[in-house]
Each structure stands twice: as structure tokens, then as C-alpha cells.
Amino acid sequence: MLGAIGSFSAMAVAGRELGPILDTFEIMMYRSFFGVIIVVALAFGSGTWREIKTDALGLHFIRNIAHFAGQNLWFYAVTVIPMAQLFALEFTSPLWVIVLAPFILGERMTRVRVTAAVMGFIGILIVARPDMDGINSGMIAAASCAIFFALVAMFTKRLTRSQSITCILFYLTVMQLVFGIICAGYDGDIALPGWSNMPLLVLIGICGLVAHFCITKALTIAPATVVVPIDFARLPIIAIVAMLFYGEALDIWVFVGAVIIFAGNYFNIWHETRKTA
């Protein structure tokens, strides 16, 4: 989880630095290009390339459309709103899973899950503090990316029933490279990064894969009730990073809202794990 926290924080800083130079589609395209190289090299190096199958291409496609949309919104939001605010709104993703799971996974909506979702919504209101002047495109993008990431989580859960991690990561990088080329090149103009920006793009490509691998590995080693609280340490860490690097003020209400969002997430996970114990 420390690896995941470091990777997400590094991605946020690299995305903020690249924002004035490349648009989000271009960032995603270059990120996926380096991701393909890494995944293919690891697949052939470890002998897991045989696990790449074509029997669930439709589900891979839907999952990666959702991930591409969510990641583009995330990279846009990181350039226009405080990083702590983005991370706090992103943490509502598990609560959106609660809301959408009955429709996509056929899971039952319980009183505990409803309570957790309501707590998450209250947390969103505290973080965003919506009024006519406060709502902006960055907040909308951050809140929306959480919904798309929730869809990604649910479709990933369905894929893991029959697909290996190598297979999922292969289609993740390849499909999103194609999406990135199409969206970045629709106007006939794809910006080429300078050599000085190349390390940031490589960093984003590596960190994106490392973060997902670390979280998946953490969940195989420890219960979700242990993993999730560690993940929420991202918020104070990124708030401090943003204060030191970009002079962003620490907003106490972002932390208050994030605590309520965390409480809703943790309450639901604690109840689910106790029920299955």
C-alpha cells in the first residue's frame, strides 16, 4: 500500500507538470504506450503471455472505455483543482460501487450499504461545499471520475472470474493506447513531448501499473479492513506534497469531508467482512 500511495502521488505531480504541455488524451496515449512496453516485456519475461485470451473482449472493451474516461477526467481535474480535493472526491468510488452493484453485479442493496452511500454523499457536499460560485469543471470532473472508477472496479471483478492479471493489464494498456491515439489525433494534431518531459511520461506509465499491482497484491495479503485505511493516508500525504510543491493551502473542510467518506467506506467493509467471517 505504501507503493500504491507513492505511485498515485507521483502520478498527480507528473500530471500537474504535464498539464500545460499536453492535453489529457495525449497524456493517456503516451502513458499507455509505455504501459504496453512494460506489460509485454513482463508477460514474455515471466512466461505469462499464454494467459492472454480473447474470450472476453467485449467486457475488456467496456471496462477500458470506463477506465479511459475516468482517467482522462482525473488528469484534467489534477490540473485545475487542489490535489487534496481531487483525492477526497476520488475516494467516493467504493460508495458508487455500492449504488451501482445491484444493477451490474446483481448484488443486494442492504441497509448498511445505503447508510454508507449516504455518508459518502454528505462527505461530497462537505468537500465541494456547492454554491453558485464554488462549483467548477474540476470538481465535476473529479466527482465523475469516481463513478467511472467504480464501474472499472465492478467490471474488473467480473473479469477476474476468468481472466488473469496479465491478461487484464495487457488489454488495459493496448486498448487505451488505441483510444488515446484516436482521441488525441482526431484534430490531426498530436503534440510531441520534449526530451525534458519524457521522464514524467515514463513515470506516469510505470506508476499507473505499479499502483494497481500494489493494491491488488495488498488485498491478497491483508483484509480490506486493513488495506482501505492505509489507502486513505493518500489524502494527508498529497495535501502536504501540494502545499510544498504548489503552495496549495490545507483546507480543513476537505479533511472533514474525507473522514466522513472514509467512515462510510470503512463501515461497509467492516460489516461485510464480519458477516462473511
Outline the structure in words.
With 277 residues, the chain is mostly helical. Helix content is 78%, strand content 0%. It contains 12 helices and no strands. The longest helix has 25 residues. The two termini are 23 Å apart. The mean pLDDT is 87.
Shape: globular
Quote the beta fraction. Answer: under 5%
Structural class: mainly alpha
Number of strands: 0
The rounded distance between the terminal residues' Cα atoms is 23 Å
For the CA atoms, what is the radius of gyration?
18 Å
Number of helical segments?
Answer: 12
Compressed to H and E, one letter per element, the order equals: HHHHHHHHHHHH
Described by strand count, sense and barrel closure, the largest sheet is: none
What is the typical, i.e. mean, pLDDT? 87
Ranges with pLDDT <50 over ≥5 residues?
none
Helix content: over 70%
Name a few traits of the molecule:
mainly alpha; single chain; 277 residues
Strand and helix map with partners:
Layout: H1 2-18, H2 24-46, H3 57-80, H4 83-90, H5 93-104, H6 111-128, H7 137-159, H8 165-185, H9 198-221, H10 224-231, H11 234-246, H12 252-276
Helix pairs in contact: 1-3, 1-9, 1-11, 2-3, 2-8, 2-9, 3-7, 3-8, 4-7, 4-11, 4-12, 5-6, 5-7, 6-12, 10-12
